[in-house]
Amino acid sequence: MFAPARASGASVAAPGPGGTGPGGTGPGGTGPAWDRGLDAAQLAVATHGAGPLLVIAGAGTGKTRALISRVAYLLQGGTSPERILLLTFTRRAADEMLARAARLVGASGGRRPWGGTFHAVAHRFVSAYAEVIGFPSGFSVLAPSDACDLMELMRTEHGLSGTAQRFPRTATLVDIYSRCINTSQPLSDILATDFPWCEPHRGAIAQLFSAFTASKRSQALADFDDLLLYWRALLAHEPLGRQVVASWDYVLVDEYQDLNRLQVDIVRLLRPSGQGLMVVGDEAQAIYGFRGGSAECLRDAVLAFPASSVVRLERNFRSVQGILDVANSVGRDDDVARVVLRSDRGRGARPVLLRCHDAHGEARSIVDRVLQAHERGIALREQAVLVRAAHHSDLVELELSARGVPFRKYGGLRFLEASHVKDFVAAARLLDNPHDQLAWYRLLRLHDDIGPARARDLVAMATGGADRVADWAELVAAAPARARGSLSFTLETLARARQAQGARARAELVVDALRPLLASRYVDAPVRLADIERLAAAAGSVPELAAWLAELTLDPPEATGDLAGPPHLDEDYLVVSTIHSAKGLEWAVVHIPHVVDGCVPSDLAVGTPAGLAEERRLLYVAVTRARDELYLYSPLRLHFHRQASDDRHAFAALSRFLDSRVCAALDVVDEAVERPDVAACGRLAAAVSLALEDLWR
DNA sequence: GGTAACTGGGTTTTT
DNA sequence: CCCAGTTACC
């Protein structure tokens, strides 16, 4: 997150946009000087004055390089690093950018530009001004799943759960809520346009949302949306906003096409006059519509900026033309057609579409190709498997493990979502914020005989009065008999943790408190305990547990194994990532599995023209990550299509996007020749059941 | 009234 | 694999 105080080992540098490796982004040299090897357009970006600057940057056109060069240029002109703010949309992009910026200014005494995601920077300021915002003794950051739990609680409290009436599910409610906030649109509009089936419940939803906000406030909790809301409010405040805005001379915003209204507001408040503002975006890569992101903001910016301050980066330095042909044919919708990517690198190999028999065949085929490329000298970390949904790589991961290929997965199941980690975070939050009812609830629920109802009563008691140990004794007395012993131990240990000095000692006592609870709750308790012990150890180097928890919530370990310790430099691993998480990155070889209707594009998104268009951009983003080789895989049959499998065969499982025009840019290879005879399989199944019948006889 | 144990169905994408 | 719903037990 912030350059000066980054928690150790929280993330791993992923193989990113060129830079250091051979064949990296952009032409020419590798030195840190801002002008080395930039082309005219990139140079214009780097050396632009203080006026507003809008960069329209196609995929692979060296945008990060131009941005970093601009930072170098500004520094050379005498701007202090900390007067520059780099805002990015995703954490991986933030890491990548800050790492490169750090390399660049390595010599300038360890001072680095500010940078991070909107949420991380927001947290920094909301914390600093917590008192003004109305949290006199600090606040806790609510992870998304916690926000969901709280919404669920409120829903129950309002008598809106149960089967008696159909009411939107908690997940839907959270969605609606977040959408209202992020698009700055009233509930009624959101319901009308995006959730029409929920409209009958508008009144109840509105009440629920009020209660939800009030509840967060009274517990000193802020969810991700609140961080942005409070930051915006802070910036708009007179005179505090002026103070915050004056912290920087330059604000550089990446992936502008993915920002939502709230974030655009923040940018506007940061640089009201546009002086010192630079935004970079590419409409063709807008893939965060589900978070309220809207490329319209970029379009607005194009109109709002004077023509002289718009620079277009159009030369693609990344990919060979064969790959760009596929990209161009995929992204041919109206909103995308404007930029036709042209390569600086020659034709290269034609990308391949492999039609496999099923997902198993696909997995084998992918690993075969990964290893073949490895034999040719392409390191594993120069290759990536990019998926639309995290579970699309399940079988690939299995095959990789079976064949001993190391890999690292980004996106999908999050570390923080694991229930034992949530238990740990909740207990730790209580040390500094005893008003946190949600944390109390979670902790109490871990004890025997304390279910939803009793937990609710006890929570009221725990947060109602003061937070002295004497009150905790009362709490124990009120608990059901079977829970008293363990609850007493839990509370005592937490009380000791509270007294303890230093984040590490506190964290370890929290683990002590949880140990017996987790041991009796989970079959795989040893594994889970090891997890949180490592987590506690990671807290070692920071002074404040609360601050560390907030950072953990905002920037959780992304890949499985990130907590295992600092990565070895010589470590080689294949990257498995969602397309969303792969944004802004590149690899020599890219594999895209499950390019079939229902997966790419996702069935859940093709209901509307806008949804379908975003799916198309998603494939566009995936394809343009590849530098030299690109493989798409179409399993002809997927297990959840069992009933329709014969139809699938007939249709050859082509994705909605793989029409003749796209296929013309691809070599289609049929790997499904050895298809098992379905009729024979049926006979085999019959024989097995017959044999079983014999057993029962 | 409340908890625990079991069963069956469904699963996007991120801060 | 996590959820909601069901059932059996206190």
What layout of secondary structure does this protein have?
Elements: H1 40-46, E1 53-57, H2 63-76, E2 84-88, H3 91-104, E3 114-117, H4 118-128, H5 130-133, E4 140-142, H6 144-157, H7 170-183, H8 187-194, H9 202-218, E5 221-223, H10 224-236, H11 240-245, E6 250-253, H12 261-270, E7 277-281, H13 296-304, E8 310-313, E9 315-316, H14 321-330, E10 342-343, E11 352-356, H15 359-375, E12 383-387, H16 394-402, E13 407-410, H17 419-432, H18 437-445, H19 452-464, H20 469-478, H21 481-499, H22 503-521, H23 525-538, H24 545-554, E14 574-578, E15 587-592, H25 609-623, E16 626-635, H26 645-651, H27 660-663, E17 667-670, H28 678-696
Parallel strand pairs: 1-7, 1-8, 2-3, 2-6, 4-5, 6-7, 9-10, 11-16, 11-17, 12-14, 12-15, 13-14, 15-16
Helix pairs in contact: 1-2, 2-3, 4-10, 6-7, 6-9, 7-8, 10-12, 14-25, 15-16, 17-18, 17-21, 17-22, 18-19, 20-21, 21-22, 22-23
The structure holds a DNA duplex (15 and 10 nucleotides).
Please sum up the structure shown.
By secondary structure, this protein is of the alpha/beta class. The longest helix is centred in the last third of the chain and has 19 residues, at 481-499. The chain binds a DNA duplex (15 and 10 nucleotides) through helix 4, helix 10 and helix 19.
